[in-house]
Fold this sequence. Notes:
The structure is a single chain. By secondary structure, this protein is mainly α. It has a domain at about 145-315. The chain contains 10 helices and 4 strands; from the N terminus they run αβαβββαααααααα. The protein has helices at about 1-40, 55-70, 115-130, 145-170, 180-190, 205-215, 220-240, 260-270, 275-285, 295-300, and strands spanning about 45, 80-85, 95, 105-110. It has a 4-stranded mixed β-sheet with strand order 1-2-4-3, with helices on one face. α2 links the parallel β1 and β2 (about 80-85). α4 runs antiparallel to α5. The radius of gyration is 26 Å and the shape is globular.
Amino acid sequence: MRRATLLTSILLTFASLQGAGAAELKRGGQQQKELAREDKERLLIRVAPGDWGNANPAEIEALLNSVGNEMLKHFPGRRPFPVVVSPSRDGPLVMYQKGPSNEYQVLLAAKDDHWAEYVYEFSHELLHILAGYDLRAPTRTARNQWFEEMLCETASLYMLKRYASAWNVLAPRPEWHQYTPELQRFMHRALSEKHRKLPVNVTFEDWFEKNGPGLATKPYQREKNELVAMFFLPLLEQMPDWRAIEYLNQGNREADASFYDYLARWHRKTPLSQRGLVQSTFNLFRFDPPQENAGLGSGNAAAAGLPEPTVNDRGAAGRPGR
């Protein structure tokens, strides 16, 4: 009897260990699947050798991968893509011509161990990629392209603030923690530049009414883009889902007669569930959002059987007034 009881106890213990082992294997398998899924969602950024000053390309690569994957959190579901980053006096820019393996080619001007400059420059070029810059014709400047440039500047400021506040967590190397004060100084200097502030007694609406038409055809007016970015930055900070930016360059841009038409096309191309950022943009510029299935601009109003907007209904930037 005692032998039977002992044998039963041994068998139950063995069965219990088997069950625990199976459960542990299952958990291990789930963890491996989760890690594999995370790897698939990570960007594939490679830093090419070249004149990076005293910075090690492997260290730059670690930082840029960190920046890329941090930004990709705002684009859930976005498939990763390869990027090769090279040093160049012509940078920062992202080239229209892709590499031999269909990778995006980014040139940066940052050198040495000025990590804040790498964060700032690479964030700008990465957002161009996420915005589908390559859908634009490379041979000429697109009308209202300034808005994309402004968005990229805003993303750079956002990532600077993110890394300045969480460098101890996000820095790829523990020994880089001492760089926190310099990163914060770079961020504060960028945010406090005089040209990023409106003139005294001038509202943003009045400023844009005066400057909007010039921006439409000259997208690289850096100081003006940077001023608008200061107003756009809170929108990105309040809205973690940036997927609407992926639809910015989709559709026929030749039909964008005005900045309002440009935004209306963006609104129309963006899925309804992702239009939060688009709606906030309309609010910032004090535009009425377009009605579904409505024509674009005054040129399409007559064709749609709608009354033409009067002069008093449109601002200097060619936008329907509120």
